[in-house]
Write a structure and sequence with these properties.
The protein is built from three helices and five strands; from the N terminus they run αββαβββα. It has one domain: 2-Layer Sandwich (Beta-Lactamase), CATH 3.30.450.30. By secondary structure, it is α+β, with helices and mostly antiparallel strands. It starts with a helix and ends in an 8-residue tail after the last helix.
């Protein structure tokens, strides 16, 4: 399997959590890996979030050397979490604003580690 397929498996595993409504492996240039399914009903909100991911990367770049772990945006009933994996890739997760953050934080960290291993593999081309 390639990097994109392996990343999709990891993202789909994250989506199995009740509180994860949507997620993606966002790339700095608006690309990335997005699972086919999501639990988020508001597709216009999802489209705005996907289109806005590129605007988060300048912040990630500025604070990357200071070990930025998360950027959280609370928007009404949703929380959007950007968890940088590298300077080029970030895990983006949408959860309900009242979700259990302890469990989510652990799962985001585990997912980041798995994705980092996938991205660090030298045997294949980059995820597109």
């Amino acid at each position: 399997m390639g990097k994109k397929e392996d990343a999709l498996i990891v993202l789909n595993d994250l989506l199995q959590l009740d509180d994860v409504l949507a997620c993606m492996l966002a790339r700095k240039d608006l690309g990335g890996v997005v699972p086919d399914k999501m639990k988020l009903k508001d597709t216009s909100f999802w489209n705005i979030v996907k289109e806005s991911t590129a605007q988060v990367f300048p912040i990630i770049e500025k604070f990357y050397l200071y070990k930025v772990e998360r950027i959280n945006l609370e928007l009404g009933e949703y929380m959007i979490i950007f968890a940088p994996v590298t300077q080029t890739y970030s895990l983006m997760v949408i959860i309900p604003s009242l979700a259990n953050m302890g469990l989510i934080d652990v799962e985001i960290e585990n997912t980041k580690r798995k994705i980092k291993v996938i991205l660090d593999r030298k045997d294949e081309v980059q995820v597109s």
